[in-house]
Amino acid sequence: MKLSPDGSVFFVANQGLGGVSVVDAATLKILGFIRTGRGAHGMAISRDTKSLYLTNRLAGTISVIDFSTRTVAKTWDIGGSPDMIQVSPDGTQLWISNRYGTTVSVISTLTGTLIRRIEVGADPHGLAFFPQPGTYSLGQNGVYR
Predict the structure, then answer these.
(1) How far apart are CA 140 and CA 133, in angstroms?
(2) CATH number of the domain enclosing 87
(3) Residue 124 has what pLDDT?
(4) Distance between terminal CA atoms of the chain?
C-alpha cells in the first residue's frame, strides 16, 4: 500500500484481482480499481513523485501508474516473477527481487530496459534501498520507514 503524494488516496495492491484499488484516505471507501496484471504486488514511488511503480509477480511485468490520472502509463515486460521493488537514490533505476528465481533485476526508470541481473540465491523477497523518497513509507518487507 502507498499513499498518494497529495495524501488524498491510498493505492492498494490486490494480487487476486490483478491490479490496484484506489481508496479514499479520509473515508476508506474504495473509489476505483486500476487493472495492471496478474499478481499485483510490490510498489515504489518515483523520485519526482509523479509515478507509482508496481510489480505484477505472475505476469512478469512492471506497471507505471500516473498519479495525476490514476491510469497505467506504461507496462514493461521484464520476465521472471518481479516482487519487491525499490528506487535508486538518484531515481534512474528500479531494483526488483525475482521472487521465484535467483536474481535481482536492475532496470531503467526511463525506458524499462534491463541494465543488469544480479545472482543472489533462491527466492529473493524483501529489498531495501536508502534513502527512500518522502518522510514515511507504508511498505512491506525490506522497507524500513
Answers:
(1) 15
(2) 2.40.10.480
(3) 87
(4) 13
